[in-house]
Amino acid sequence: MIRWLIGAIGLSVVASSALAADPIDIRVGYLGQAGIKSKLSLAEQPSENDGIAGARLAIEDNNTTGKFLNQRFYLEEVRLKDGEDVAKAATALADRNGIIIADLAADALLKAADALRDRKTVLLNSGAIDDRLREQDCRANVIHVAPTRSMLADALAQYLVWKQWKRWLLVVGSHEADKLYADALRRAATRFGAKIVQEKVFEDTGGARRTDSGVTLIQRQMPVFTQGAPAYDVLVAADESEVFASYLPYRTWDPRPIAGSAGLVPTSWDAAHDQWGAIQIQNRFVKLNSRRMTARDMQAWTAGRMIGEATSRTNSGDPKSVFDFLKKPDFSVAAFKGQRLTLRDWNLQLRQPILLVDGRMVVSVSPQEGFLHQYSELDTLGVDRPETKCKLN
Amino acid sequence: MWRRCLLSGMAVWLAATSPALAFVAYVSNEKSNTVSVIDTDKWAVTHTIKVGQRPRGIEFTKNGKFVLVAVGDDDKIEVIDTATHQVVDSLPSGPDPELFTQDAAGKLLYVANENDNTVTIIDLEKRVRLGDIQVGVEPEGMALSPDGKILINTSETTNMAHFIDTATREIVANVLVDARPRYAEFKRDSSELWVSSEIGGTVSILDPAKRTITGKIEFNIPGLRREAIQPVGIGITKDGKTAFIALGPANRVAVVDATTHKVTKYLLVGQRVWHMAFTPDEKYLLVTNGVSNDVSVIDVSAQKVIKTIQVGELPWGITFAQP
User: Fold this and answer.
1) What is the ipTM of this complex?
2) What is the dihedral of CA B200, B293, B283, B38, to 10 degrees?
């Protein structure tokens, strides 16, 4: 009932916004999944509002700017439960909001995008890192704010190669997402001149992540699991499913650093990042949400900020003008990464530097110096224009 | 040149009693929590002063007796006595002060507080906070119009230059500029206001009366990617004819014909060049190089870098006493 009321108010405001004195109302939907995936480390356990909290900060920032432009931003949050119809939920949300920040898994995102294909609704993907969403499964109505797996893998590979850790022991989990990450890591090794000396699969045999006597067992398992590997410089783990990677540091048979899903991790954001004015958004985020900011939060904030950038520059809340502005070749957004972020016109992926973090500090930021590109060094990360399989429209 | 010879001659002559006839610059070192004092006669650091955490914005008081330095991580502005080179007092600013500006009489200080979207007004004599003005997200650049009537504040995430009436302390206009506006500077005759946009990579020229953008300076350095060109500090000569713009990680200072707004030259300086200050005679321009931990000295008329002076870690702001 209340939803319909909001919708009605929305309509009446849209109708009267032609009058100069009326504020422009910009309604943004947030479509996410309910329930949080469990992490191996209790310290890394995401909060219930992971992601949404970043969108909320973006809306607050946009409203501060909006005060001076007579623009008002509203956020409507919808969380899908398991088995809920994503197309239906996306359509209902799009009835009331012209722009949607989507923090969904790949298949759900495609369903939402296809359900909204014939509308003017703009979708900003803040959660899914799957390359296929920007390649063979790309959609003309989706802008990708989250980096791809291949961007993350390339960012890590550049650093490892710069460090002269070129011999990798690759350990891959047994789930689909782990295999996709391993594909991206293999591609990165080939591109940047690293060698995978051996691959091992870590089978997920089930079991609880938290047990009372866990450490004793793990301490025996991990050395044995990594025993007998050919000479290697770094163990690279592909474990998006959070089954084993965090158990590896300090427990390998040979004393070697860990990277990938544990140890040195490539990510779009980290609570430790304080360069390039980032301390300011970190402080604002903590003040608003009473916790530290994650990569998911930052991706949602960036999506929200892109919307604010578009509405302030175009002086319009119309989704089509927002979309057109974001797709313009000279569009750029500032997001505390030391340089402007722009969109790849061939698949609407946001170019961005990737942080390499160890859980306490930012170790480095890729692209690394010396990895050159004729257009933008950020295009040394991920699938580049000549290799793309994406055909928009 | 003549003046420099004379000055250095006198300096030797009077060495025992008054060695300080040369100009003196104060440089804030963001990482080492110090302020370096540079003697332009020796082109060397003569004193290093310990200050609070994360010193950035730095400026002489109008009477030349003190240097104010914003120590952001201590949420205050410290006052250095230039006679003793000691921190003697501190001023109450809002949280995380970064850049500030003073009125002509040296009575009021306007401070940009990055953390709570405000500009704070401080009474310098009474050393109390008079009030706050709500501005956009992440306020940074501060400039007063030459007649003192309009205060400019730039907000880095809102991407605006806010025009504040200093009499009413109300915002009277907001002008959108390119991304991450960091620094604002008026021409002395009030004909133009320049605002640098670090991430946008441009300097906007504004008409202060009409409060609109009338032009934009863009930079194009062969062999350098566009993302590396990040304008920050701006210096305009008193006659309004020549400007210098620090381009951050491009490691260059652009020389701009301030009448035509065309870039005439790029001077190679140290790494991540931030801010700048002219010697009072305008013969030299000193720029701080954040990553290479030094200050480059530019000969203004020759438009050449003539010297590099090692200072503390991550030098950021710089100020000269006006004679």
Assistant:
1) 0.84
2) 140
